[in-house]
Fold this protein.
Amino acid sequence: MKLIYLIFQTFSLFSSFMVVNLSNSIYSVLFLILSFVNLSGILFLFGVDFLTFIFLIVYIGAIAILFLFVIMMLNVKLEHNKIIFKIGGPIISLILGVLIYQFIIYQNIYIELDLFNENYLIWLIQYYYLNNIEILGLILYTNYIFLFLVSSLILLIAMIGSIVMTIYQKKNIFKQEILFQTNKQLVDSIKFIKIR
């Protein structure tokens, strides 16, 4: 369990580092999605199931995809031959690697993680025989159904708005007008000119 937690933690640190330091904004958004996936995996290991699914649905499904739409709409000219770290790249990578390694060693030696012990007692399961998702689902769909429908409607409007914003027509595009072409007569299209 600790190995899986350390894998998620390392990938989340790496992906958040790449979000900040990449020059290509589309790749930055993709690494942002990867960092959200890793953080939701960490939350799932901690036993917070509902927040895990909220991270996956809201942050990845709505916000990160909206960022991706907006960045793809912008005409960003990329410099393909530009290297981010020309001089200090290996030095910065070495320092960050040493810091991450020291953090992992410190966490394994000096911090006792009681979250991975399976001896603690969850009172909701003992009394109601339900897990977190079932209890939150019952509360959400009974007491807060109006707010749930309003929030889903807001997300639907945001999705439709992002799709409408990406569909735009350029003014300099040549296209055929079929009605004008079928109504054109031979007299209107060919002109005979007398030279003499």
Notes: Residues 80-85, 113-117 have pLDDT under 50 and may be disordered. The two ends are 97 Å apart (CA to CA). The first helix runs from residue 2 to 21.
